[in-house]
Amino acid sequence: MRGSPIQFRSHVAMGVLGFSALLIATLATSRIAHGTDLTTPSFLVATRDLQDPFFQRSVILMVPSTEPPLLAGLIINNPAKERVHDMFPQARQLKGAEETMYMGGPVEPDQVSVIFRASSAIGSATRVFDDTYVATGRDAIAAVLKDPRIADLRVISGKAQWLRDQLTSEVMAGAWYVVPAKTDLVFSDPKDLWSTLVKGGDLEEAQAGPGPPPNLPFSRLDGTNWQRRISAN
Which CATH number covers residue 26? Predict the structure, then answer.
């Protein structure tokens, strides 16, 4: 990632009012922010300082990586011009935001994933948290798209991916707020998601001082952490 005033570069091959009740509950934070923990379900929310054009105003859902120890996430608020039926013509009829393909990140743009809600896993899908699952690959996605029980889904091409130390550095440098993930937010209107979450992050940052280092998978850090963070509890 790149830009100013803070510069970042990835080197890995890699209605505010419409749902205000949910967001108020999510962003009603205490004055003392909780420590960041990316080993639990999390969003990365781009801060206002992040100027990389690909990641500006992005909200990323962290998902289980298929290439550990690399860390992976999917941008969930960047609709593309393509429709799901363009890629999966046999899919059942979709409505609203489900009709739209999303750009999930700059890594492997031809790799397609689907995030969806279900009472249990379908095929090779992996549970992200609660009733939210992710599946990758055309056959796995086709099975989800044909299942009439699936009411909430996003089909996403590409992904974001980091080396452990790279993401740690970006969080500590102020590129991202780390927000506990909520299922209803994953499938909410993408248009206002970033602006609402980043306002909550700005407020929490103003209230809270430096905290403990981020708890990233496969990593244990020492020293002062000047990250930006908010808590959804």
Answer: 3.40.1740.10
What gap in Å lies between CA 207 and CA 172, rounded to an integer? Answer: 18
- Give the domain extent around 202: 20-207
pLDDT the model gives residue 66: 84
> Confidence band (pLDDT; 50, 70, 90) for 201?
low
From CA 178, how far away is CA 47, in angstroms rounded? 10
233 within domain boundaries: no
Look at residue 227 and tell me if it is in a domain. Answer: no
| Torsion sign over Cα 232, 75, 153, 71 | negative
Q: What is the pTM of this model?
A: 0.76
Residue 229 in domain: no
SS (H, E, C) the chain: CCCCCECCCCCCCCCCCCCHHHHHHHHCCCCCCCCCECCCCEEEEECCCECCCCCCCCEEEEECCCCCCCEEEEECCCEEEEEHHHHCCCCCCCCHHHHEEEECCCEEEEEEEEEEECCCCCCCCEEEECCEEEEECHHHHHHHHHCCCCCCEEEEEEEEEECHHHHHHHHHHCCEEEEECCHHHHCCCHHHHHHHHHHHHHHHHHHCCCECCCECCCCCCCCCECCCCCCCC
Asked whether residue 94 is assigned to any structural domain, the reply reads: yes
* Number of domains observed in the structure of the chain: 1
